[in-house]
Amino acid sequence: MSAEPYVPDRGTLDDLRAAVHTCRGCDLYRDATQAVFGAGPDTARLVLVGEQPGDREDVEGEPFVGPAGRILDKALAEAGIARDEVYLTNAVKHFKFQRSERGKTRIHKTPGRTEVVACAPWLAAEITRVDPELVVCLGATAAKALHGPKFRITTDRGRVLPAPDGPFAGRDVLATTHPSAVLRARDDRDEVYAGLVADLRVAAA
Question: Which of 12, 81, 152, 187 could form a disulfide with 76 if both were Cys (CB 3.0 to 4.6 A apart)?
């Protein structure tokens, strides 16, 4: 499985955004409402990559517009980064979910490695078009999409590292936690949020 046959070799981000809705590179398109492409200026110096669209993103067709997006907005502001100056996207473009027992609620399900690799041509095309100074990976799935499956956020978060050989080679990358981790945290929520802000300040610098 691969999205490569569906990704235009040339064209702008708008051309990619139009083409992504035709993608059948993996099976996630079957249940998702729509593909959710990145958003932001095509000259952004900073690209932020999350895992996948959530429920609200899947419905609205825009990245980071749900609860995690609100946490990210707050963290970016505290780190001195204007959201409208960064490019936001996800490693996987379709929402992967499972139904609750009653079938009414769509519950997030982490994309598998096969799906992340299949979707990589879209992410590579976005980053190539934007050509940022730094890519920030929000969460383990995004970090492994750029660094490979052996990457561990627990040991290398908050550090600017070069991406290894492959479609992202030569890019400077910083990994941090996904803002959804703040929502999931309980007793240590303030600590998790403070870590996210601290890492984003490194990116800003």
Answer: 81
- Summarised one tens digit per residue, pLDDT across range 90-143 is 999 999 998 887 777 888 899 999 999 999 999 999 999 999 999 999 999 999
For residue 160, give Cα distances in angstroms to 80, 125, 135, 204, 205.
18, 21, 9, 11, 11
Q: How many CB atoms lie within 10 A of CB 55?
A: 16
**54 Cβ contact partners less than 8 Å away, ≥ 6 residues apart:** 66, 67, 68, 95, 108, 180
Contact 119, 141 (CB under 8 A): no
What tens digit of pLDDT does each residue of 170-194 get? 899 999 999 999 999 988 999 999 9
Indicate the pTM of the whole model.
Answer: 0.95
Q: What is the dihedral of CA 142, 16, 118, 155, to 10 degrees?
A: -10
Instruction: Map residue 56 onto helix, strand or coil.
Output: helix
In the CATH scheme, what is the homologous superfamily, with its name and number, of domain 4-204? Uracil-DNA glycosylase-like domain (3.40.470.10)
Q: Which residue is listed with tokens 């190539």?
A: 128
With beta carbons less than 8 A apart as the criterion, state whether 164 and 202 touch.
Answer: no
Q: Where are the domains of the chain?
A: 4-204
11-48 core/surface letters (b: 16 or more CB in 10 A; e: else): eebeebbebbeebebbebbeebebbbbbbbeeebebbb
